[in-house]
Amino acid sequence: MIKIDQVKKTFNRGKKIVLDNISFQINDGESVAILGGNGAGKTTLLEIIAGVLTPEDGRVYFVDSENDSKINKNLSELEEVNIKNKQSNKKLKNKEWLLKEDLEKNVGFQFQNGKWPFNTRGIDLLNFFGTKNWKSNEYINMLIDVFEVNEIIKKRLNKCSGGEQQRFNCLLSIINKPKILILDELITGLDLKMQIKLINFFKELKKSENITLIIVSHVPEEVEALSERIILLREGRIYLDDSVDNIKSKYKSVRELLTQFYASESENYEK
Ligand SMILES: Nc1ncnc2c1ncn2[C@@H]1O[C@H](COP(=O)(O)OP(=O)(O)O)[C@@H](O)[C@H]1O
Ligand SMILES: [Mg+2]
User: Fold this and answer.
1) Per-residue confidence (pLDDT) for residue 164, from 0 to 100
2) Pocket test for ligand 1, best of 10, 38, 42, 44 (most atoms within 8 A of CB)
3) Phi, psi (5° rounding) for residue 221?
4) CA–CA separation, 168 vs 158, rounded Å?
5) 41 half-sphere exposure, CB direction, 13 A CA radius
6) How much distance in Å is there from the Cα of 239 to the middle of ligand 1?
7) CB-count burial class (<10 Å; 0-12, 13-18, 19+) for 194
8) Where are the CATH 3.40.50.300 domain residues in the chain?
9) 67 C-alpha vs ligand 2 centroid, how far in Å?
10) What's the pLDDT at 81?
11) What's the topology of domain 2-106+178-270?
């Protein structure tokens, strides 16, 4: 379970409140879509969940249901150790690093604007994040096939098109079979054929691996195909948190919910 507890994030020295004490939980195996207009704080929230960004206030807890609250407890201990070490300038012991790495390996994150150092090729990253023997790895070869990156991985990524980089970054996010997968506008900018293919691929993956899936999307059809719950953000707060089934019975479709939501948003602006 992921517990997002009173998370607050501001920019511009506190002048811009992007996330205003947000709290919710995501259960193991659940698939959630985080929705909201441009600038609503979706990417910021995902980056905080993935641990790439630190909130000013509040925390994200990962609770392993098999080990109950053990990881959670260990994490708080780790944080205490971190603080103490910071004070005394001591380095973390191996064991403590391992625990943190273990957790990080369980989260796969497809960054919205994944950028790699100049001259990096896909195959360099496969060697680094995957395994040196990826050429004979069945799973990785299947991914190369699905994402159609056979040629792309040989090129320097900065010479690949946006859509090509996006496909490759997405492949990387699942290369280590994460338990928690975060996809930030995965299909935005991809051609329709690829959009349909990837939506179906992740639908199957979700079913077969029972991963926890968190997506951001502006495409209602993608949300309906991949998510069972929607969290809609507005002005730094949760405006709506409901199951896709409930939303469909109230609004007929996710598209209709969003149509009404954005219509009421522009009414607010006119006032
Ligand atoms: N590093 C940053 N410095 C200043 N403002 C930022 C930074 N990152 C994001 N923001 C601002 O925070 C708001 C939310 O950004 P983001 O989470 O990327 O929105 P979304 O993904 O919902 O479109 C935006 O107004 C954005 O301009
Ligand atoms: Mg974003």
Assistant:
1) 92
2) 44
3) -65, -35
4) 12
5) 25
6) 18
7) middle
8) 2-106+178-270
9) 33
10) 55
11) Rossmann fold (3.40.50)
